[in-house]
Structure formats: structure tokens, C-alpha cells
Specification:
Helices cover 27% and strands 26% of the residues. It is an alpha/beta fold and 292 residues long. It is built from 7 helices and 17 strands. Strand 1, helix 1 and strand 2 form a beta-alpha-beta unit. The strands form 4 sheets. Strands 1, 2, 3, 4, 5, 6 and 17 form a 7-stranded mixed β-sheet that branches. A 5-stranded parallel β-sheet has the order 7-14-8-9-10, with helices on one face. Strands 11-12-13 form a 3-stranded antiparallel β-sheet, with no helix packed on it.
Length: 292
């Protein structure tokens, strides 16, 4: 099945895009968290969102969730690892599944955590973000997983059936749902080292000899997620209509630049979906012309 629009991110930008796409009767798929934006939920009070004031972030987030629920919009609670431009459509890699969409809106917000030293240098050379995608490369090898959320536990359990040894370094309160063969290490990762490929993980109080390391974060950096995407620092480069350098791909919200404000993000989400719908209309007219 090929969707008209795939939306990656369920903060104000992603949800606004989804709502407006639904109103326009587009076939959409929305990826993100049922809890929406962590930043929004943690905000103690919001007074600058037009028409909704003196409200906590948690209450505003609940209003957002209620709105999309009433419209029958489902959030697919999976992380999108890669988005590939395939000519006249996009392929979205989600775990071991592939979804197709004619247009894509990236609304993932920005990552505030710094990369581990060596993480960017060894991307694709022993550092990865999706264990289920790359597990076959580490059969009978030693792997470390640095988990920033509970998704890392699932990846660790999956790898334990393939790798000869799995180390798990949780950067959050672990729920202890790991296979007994997995060694849990309570320490802070400092640096990823290697020659041509990764061979060592330096922790605060020890070193691990490894063949690969997976860093499981809430979202993947857009520059890694979408090959060839133009970025400016941590932000995706867009024009005023939220178009990126890749035809059919749009960005909205914090990932598209400052200021980091909920009202601005929601507006950009609406603009991005408007641009995506214009693209869909152009493609439809073009296809109609070819059929004549």
C-alpha cells in the first residue's frame, strides 16, 4: 500500500499536518509517540498559544491527542530509521518493515543530547541506530547497545539471539526485561574508537572490546535518516513553503529551525501539508495527461 503522505513525528507540527491532511481526505500514515512531544508535556505553563492559555503542557498535549483521536488518526508508535527517495515515491524503513508514500513530512523536533565522541565518525563503520536492520552483520560477534529508552531493551533481546555477546548500557531507569545472557553495564559512554571499523567502547570506568555499537535514541538525526538531505547545523534546510532540497520531502517544526515555539510548529505543519497536497495534485494532473 502506498500512502499519499507519511508524517514522521507527533509533536505539534506532525499532528497539525496530520489533521489538515485528514481534512483534505488524503491517505496518511503518522509515526511517533502516543505521548507526543516530551518538551510540551514537561512545560509547567503555556500562555502564548493563541486561544489556549494558562494551561499546562500536559493538558495541552492531551487536547492534541483528543483532537486526532476524534478524527480517527492513528499514531504508529515505531521509529523511522531511514527515508529513501525512490523516484516517484519514498520508502520508509521502520524496523524490518518498509512503508511507501508519495510525499513525506519530517517533523521530528531536534535532538538535544550530544553525540558520543566517535559516533558520527564511525556511522556505518560499526555504529548504527537500528539493531533489527543491521543485526545480520553481527552474527557471532560482540555488540554493545547504548539505550536512551525502552526500545533499546527490545533491540538488545533481539541481538542476543544472533551475537555472541551483548552489552547493554542504559541511559535511563532500566525495566529489567532483558535476556539473562545480556550483560548490563551501569556506566557512562565516553568515546567510540576503532581503526577502519569500530573495535572499542570507552566507558567512564572501563573499556569494552566490541565489533559494533548501536545507539538507540528517541529519533534519528535527519541527516542520517534521509540520504542527501541538506541541513544547517541541527536543522533541515527549507524554503518558506517547508520544501527541502528533495522533491516531495518537507520539514516542519523545531527540526526546520528556530524559534522553538508550539504555535510556530503547528503553523509550519499546516504549511508543509499544504505544499505536499499541491505536489500530489501536480502528480495527479501529470498522470491524467499521460493516460490521454
Amino acid at each position: 500500500m502506498r500512502y499519499d503522505i507519511a508524517i514522521v513525528g507527533s509533536g505539534p507540527a506532525g499532528l497539525a499536518a496530520a489533521i489538515n491532511a485528514k481534512i483534505r481526505n488524503k491517505n496518511i500514515i503518522l509515526f511517533g509517540s502516543q505521548n507526543g512531544s516530551d518538551k510540551l508535556v514537561k512545560a509547567p505553563s503555556i500562555d502564548n498559544y493563541l486561544g489556549i492559555y494558562d494551561v499546562s503542557g500536559a493538558d495541552l498535549s492531551e487536547k492534541f491527542t483528543s483532537h486526532i483521536s476524534e478524527m480517527g488518526i492513528e499514531i504508529i508508535q515505531e521509529r523511522v530509521n531511514n527515508v529513501y527517495q525512490m523516484g516517484d515515491y519514498f520508502a520508509l524503513a521502520v524496523g524490518d518493515e518498509i512503508y511507501e508514500a508519495t510525499t513525506v513530512i519530517i517533523a521530528t523536533g531536534v535532538q538535544y543530547g550530544k553525540m558520543i565522541k566517535g559516533e558520527e565518525e564511525y556511522l556505518g563503520k560499526g555504529v548504527g541506530y537500528c539493531a533489527t536492520c543491521d543485526a545480520g552483520l553481527y552474527r557471532d560477534k560482540v555488540v554493545a547497545i547504548i539505550g536512551y529508552n525502552h526500545e533499546g531493551e527490545e533491540d538488545a533481546n533481539f541481538l542476543s539471539e544472533i551475537a555472541s555477546k551483548v552489552y547493554y548500557i542504559p541511559m535511563y531507569n532500566l525495566s529489567n526485561k532483558l535476556d539473562p545472557s545480556i550483560e548490563i553495564i551501569d556506566s557512562k559512554p565516553i568515546e567510540i574508537q576503532g581503526d577502519k571499523l569500530v573495535n572499542k567502547l570507552i566507558l567512564k570506568d572501563k573499556e569494552l572490546d566490541i565489533d559494533g555499537v548501536f545507539v538507540i535514541k528517541d529519533s534519528v538525526s535527519p541527516s542520517y535518516m534521509v540520504p542527501g538531505l541538506e541541513v544547517e547545523g541541527p536543522h533541515i534546510k527549507t524554503d518558506r513553503e517547508m520544501r527541502t532540497n528533495i522533491d516531495g520531502l518537507y520539514a516542519a517544526g523545531d527540526c526546520a529551525g528556530k524559534p522553538y515555539q508550539y504555535l510556530k510548529s503547528a503553523g509550519q505543519g499546516q504549511m508543509a501539508v499544504s505544499s505536499a497536497i499541491s505536489q500530489l495534485d501536480k502528480l495527479r494532473i501529470k498522470q491524467m495527461g499521460l493516460k490521454k
